[in-house]
């Protein structure tokens, strides 16, 4: 092997090493690879003790469960931050006043809908839909509450 080949090989190895981003986290795959490598290279005359192996498997199981819990909690937080129609169902039948850059008005909410992730209130006597975030006043409609009471 000549010197230029060794230098070129070393430079190529350093270039490929710098392209990879180092990670400090020990993930499931890395933990499992370490465990398998350890089992492959253990001394057959002194194999891994049962308690050590069980401890390592318990660590692997804990790591897996924590990873799954993290994914579940991330999904939960995402779902909680997104508003849904059910969150605003109490507005149906109420009198609202709204104001936006394009205009203002008032009316009784007859339905709710969602379009492109934006929640809209449909008002009685109007074909237009009002964005929920443009509502500035909500009032219980007295005539509807009296109709719903049972005597």
UniProtKB/TrEMBL annotation:
Keywords: Bacterial flagellum biogenesis, Cell projection, Cilium, Flagellum. Pfam families: FlgD. GO terms for biological process: bacterial-type flagellum organization. Belongs to the FlgD family. This is Flagellar biosynthesis protein FlgD.
